[in-house]
Amino acid sequence: MNWRIKSLEDILATAERRSLHRSLGGIQLMMLGIGAIIGTGIFVLTAEAAQKAGPGMMLSFVIAGFVCGVTALCYAELASMVPVSGSAYTYSYAVLGELIAWIVGWALILEYAVAASAVSVGWSNYFVGAVSRLLGVSLPEAFTKGYFSGGFLNLPAMTIALLCTGLLILGTRESARVNAVLVGIKIIALTVFVILAVPAIHSENFSPFMPLGFTGVTGAAASIFFAYVGFDAVSTAAEETKDPQRNVPFGLVGSLVVCTGFYLLVASGAIGTIGAQPIFGPNHEVLSPGSAEFVAACKAHVGDSMLACSGEPLAFVLQQIHYNKIATLIGLAAFLALPSVVLMMLFGQTRLFFAMARDGLLPSFLNKLHAVYKTPYVVTIITGVGVCIFAGFFPVGVLADVSNSGTLCAFFMVSVGVMILRVRDPGRARSFRVPGVWIVGPLATIGCLYLFFGLPTKTNLIFLIWTSVGLVVYALYGYRSSHMNKANG
Asked: To pair with 254 at 20 to 30 A between CA atoms, which of 164, 233, 242, 292?
């Protein structure tokens, strides 16, 4: 096993030799975080959470938010110490060594690239709904759903992924400006939903609160965790941030606090207005969201107010309480705003690849910067094509769960890393320190493991296979090509 560790001094020196332009401030970073967090999780996966936990999804949001909260504090400390691209990958390199860093970087591909695909599919649902409501045109399922979702190819999802890829090539500042506008649209849409839905809450819709028991709440928390991922995209922008020691922690914690408040209000409004009970099979068996049996059961409930069956749940809720025009606007807002999440997931992925290529673990041509736009355009194009393919074929729920597995692996490593550095390097300057680190750190690690094992068994198996493939790639290329290997050789 290779435990060679790249010191924090070497990491900072490498970044200084081939660095990205610093153009982002604290508010822009927080908006990037909000843009990356608020998206498919709340606009689409609320329905999947209803099927897994019923009204108990309120508790699922709290559990997932808590795990993200304690992890965000760990991220903030490490990001303030190592303000360069790479996020958890870079932190692991400095703390746990190259092999673990590679595993984390490989896992983060699942977070960013697969998450971008999932959000693209979620956007496609709202696009189809918007076309239907505004133009009265029903688009064929063959070209609006992927092969594994009952269709053939999800063209809208592929299209939005490619458009976001093109925007990222144009530049970070330009992407951040577009993102700020889209974030504003999302916040307005969720605020309007809360104002209209919360007064229409009926307490009886919260009963039974946990129809599938606490196991259902755990499963929903593991899936709805996707609604929070993305805040770590803030840390991937550290190298492009002015005064990163102050602004990165501000962006991380601030974006998470804002989003958690919105999620609890929106979830309570959705549940309290029309209910959120799961759909059962003919023998009262639990149906898995997205399965053929679940789709058939939903078709049998057409006309009923079944939140679990909706592809655009927030617009659906407002329709059920007779705000049809506002529902159209909410759907349109999601249609306009969800691309900001695709944008930020692609941003995080390309910056991760940039950092890994800069360390020699991936081919050097990946970190080539565009002569005019000064962005890593080669890796951006490669990432965009990959995201496009996944979005074209797979359903949103499957993509979200796979993304969560990679995210939780990275979060676990960050939580462990911050504690190791407190022991190994206690004297190093930390502009942000985790309060009560010996309580927060263990809570974060246990929480990540808890949610990881709450994911479907198939998802965990995919993660293990993906990790195994990554180890083969590292053995064949990364180990020998690593700059650390050459420096020691």
From this structure: 164
- Count the neighbouring beta carbons within 10 Å of the beta carbon of residue 120: 33
Provide the 8-state DSSP code for 198.
G
Helix or strand run (H / E) with residue 390? helix 377-393
pTM reported for the whole predicted model: 0.81
Token match 């332009």: residue?
21
CB 220 within 8 Å of CB 49: yes
Q: Which residues fall within 8 angstroms of residue 489, CB to CB, at 6 or more apart?
A: none
Q: Which helix (H) or strand (E) holds 228?
A: none
What string of DSSP letters covers 5-25? ---HHHHHHHHHHT-----B-
Domain boundaries 22-276+305-488, corresponding CATH code: 1.20.1740.10
Pairwise CA distance, residues 475 & 469, whole Å: 10
- The 10s digit of each residue's pLDDT in 95-105 is 788 898 899 88
Q: Are 47 and 58 in contact (CB under 8 A)?
A: no
Q: How far is CA 373 from the centre of its chain?
A: 26
- Contacts of residue 177, Cβ cutoff 8 Å, sequence gap at least 6: none
Domain boundaries, the chain: 22-276+305-488
Residue 194 has a pLDDT of 94
- For residue 335, what are its two tokens? 């249609």
Nearest to 390 by CA among 345, 441, 353, 351: 345
Residue 249: asked if its preceding bond is cis (omega within 30°), the reply is no
Residue 13: the pLDDT is 67
For residues 253 and 228, give the distance between their C-alpha atoms in angstroms, rounded to a whole number: 12
pLDDT tens digits, one per residue of 352-402: 888 888 888 988 887 788 778 777 888 889 889 999 999 999 888 788 889
Bridge partners (DSSP) of residue 244 are: none
Which residues, including other chains, have CB under 8 Å from residue 2's CB and lie 6 or more apart? Answer: 97, 98, 99, 479
DSSP notation for 384-429: HHHHHHHHHHS-HHHHHHHHHHHHHHHHHHHHHHHHHHHHH-TTS-
Residue with tokens 């063959």: 142
Dig out the tokens for 405 from the structure: 């597995």
52 vs 220: CA distance, rounded Å: 5
**Are 182 and 339 a contacting pair, CB within 8 Å?**
yes
Tell me phi and psi for residue 67, to 5 degrees: -60, -45
For residue 475, what are its two tokens? 């053995």
Contact 251, 32 (CB under 8 A): yes
